[in-house]
Amino acid sequence: MFEKILIANRGEIACRVIRTARRMGIATVAVYSEADANALHVELADEAVCIGPAPARESYLVADKIIAACKATGAQAVHPGYGFLSENESFCDALEREGIVFIGPKTHAIAAMGDKIASKKLAKEAGVNTIPGWNDPIESPERAVEIARGIGYPVMIKASAGGGGKGLRVAFNDAEAHEGFASCVNEAKNAFNDDRVFIEKFVEEPRHIEIQVLGDAFGKVVYLNERECSIQRRHQKVIEEAPSPFIDADTRRAMGEQAVKLAKAVQYQSAGTVEFVVGRDKSFYFLEMNTRLQVEHPVTELITGLDLVEQMIRVAAGEPLTFDQADVKLDGWAMEARICAEDPARGFLPSVGRLVKYRPPVQTQSATHAVRVDTGVYEGGEVSMHYDSMIAKLICHGRTRDEAIARLRDALDDFVIRGPNHNIAFVSSVLGHERFAAGRFTTAFIAEEYPQGFDPAAAEFEDAPLLLAVAASVHQRYNERASRIVGQMPGHEFRIKPEAVVRLRGVAHFVQLDVDGDDHVVSIDGKPHRLVADWKVSDPVYRGELDGKTFAVQVERIGLRYRLQHRGVRVDAEVMSQRAAELLARMPVKAAPDMSRFLLSPMPGLLREVSVKPGQAVKAGERLAVIEAMKMENILRAERDGVVEKVSAGAGESLAVDQVILVFAAG
Length: 667
Fold this sequence. Notes:
- By secondary structure, this protein is of the alpha+beta class.
- Among the domains are: 4-103, 3-Layer(aba) Sandwich (Rossmann fold), CATH 3.40.50; 132-201, Dna Ligase, domain 1 (2-Layer Sandwich), CATH 3.30.1490; 464-585, Glycoprotein, Type 4 Pilin (2-Layer Sandwich), CATH 3.30.700.30; 598-664, CATH 2.40.50.100.
- A hairpin with a 2-residue loop joins strand 11 (221-233) and strand 12.
- Helix 4 (89-97) packs antiparallel against helix 5 (107-114).
- The longest helix is centred in the C-terminal third of the chain and has 23 residues, at 464-486.
- It is globular, with a radius of gyration of 27 Å.
- It starts with a strand and ends with a strand.
């Protein structure tokens, strides 16, 4: 077994590998860019080596710097995590030449499966179901349109070296095929330095279901059941679960056997994932094989009881698998949510900044359930624009799917993040959606159900009495604190009234609160409720019971309002006297300023391109600018016809959110 390994990655996956290595008694080496000098993975590792500036192409993607770090520290092996160099055959080959073990598959398997065009051909030869398409590189957008017409719309345009949603577009007509091809080529060249693109038939009403495989150096390959990964946004997974609520035992076995057949065809050693697109009739087709650990691997670990990182390390060290296919368990249900720094109310655009508060839920583990948090951040740390937007992964396990969903929603209510915008409320909303609960979804679920993104401040709340009771109780506790402070000053006694008006989104409710220690009797519009809670003003989460049902509501005081978040909904509650409520109702409403003349940056990022000039007339839908943030290219378009009056920002400039890029002429 290895004595020391280096993790050629950052963030939560680096921390994840370090935890397992430490449990196995293996020393660890972290590598980090200048931007990650204070990162969590650097603190957790036994040693750490700086490998360059913030941009990944100058640090995490430079194989020579990784190898130099191995030599300097005496690391015998490298775990690549996912992304960066994890599926780079030349990196694997370079390590091998230096006598350093790559904790992953051999070079020939990466070469065969890492190229999507080659892997589709090989899969077909191995007897694996494949999708109709054009598997040779395409030289121009005009040729892409011609091929797409031949296959029949809709088609999927994909970068051969792509992954993680980069270099991928779905086209439903000639115009989308033409533009999608160009965008895929640009993204692929920037992200992977490989601009080859291919086209395949897009299966309508598709589900994305993948099979986890594990192979050793002695020819044994097993499959570890499936993961349902259909809840995606811009082809990036948001929620994953295992098993799938859609497929049956026979389909699972057929998919698993084909995945094993493909892995054996390339003499696969290590953990890998064979991805399939599954139609509504349960027909399935090979998409690609990821020759690395997947982001969503924890759900497989929770239903099988296996540590996939440990298995990868043992296989790389030359040990055989110690179990057979018949030994693979399917125990309960596991579900993972990716917690990302993004703004669902602005179309899920990236968000960056300091984590002013970061309080994940308490992790638990038992024979029947679990709450697990995989993260690479900490309170006070910063979410950078240079890397992926993921803050953490929240994974829950239960005996049934309903139990796993309920546990995950409870944990989300308990997950406090303040600073960058994030998707916690959105994920909770998806989990509570009736289609999701029933398992009736496809990869188009988010586009269909959340076409305008998701604004938690506009979402309908499930439990108004709970929010009203909590708002009244929080207000009471703040008043009690004020009373203790000013009560020490003669003549300034503070009288706390038991009754108040609580306004939720402009609707007033009369609430009376009788408090006896932690026991509250709350009357809401004349209806009594019993609230039990020992909440303190300093606690960002209000935990308690309302009418015997436990809950957690996030609380933040903003001015004279109380911001409450629960089950995917955010409300700003106003608590006041009856007289104040009467006067407030008479106040005029201030009109919002007209910002229609300005093109504002919807996110922080790098302005790659300004496509127009002062005096230029533009039509609705015309391309205005391109912003790059967190490795994604975002095109800004004109919302209506107009004339550009002024260009306020230039290509190459770093933009703040809401910074003015263009000004249009009045009228």
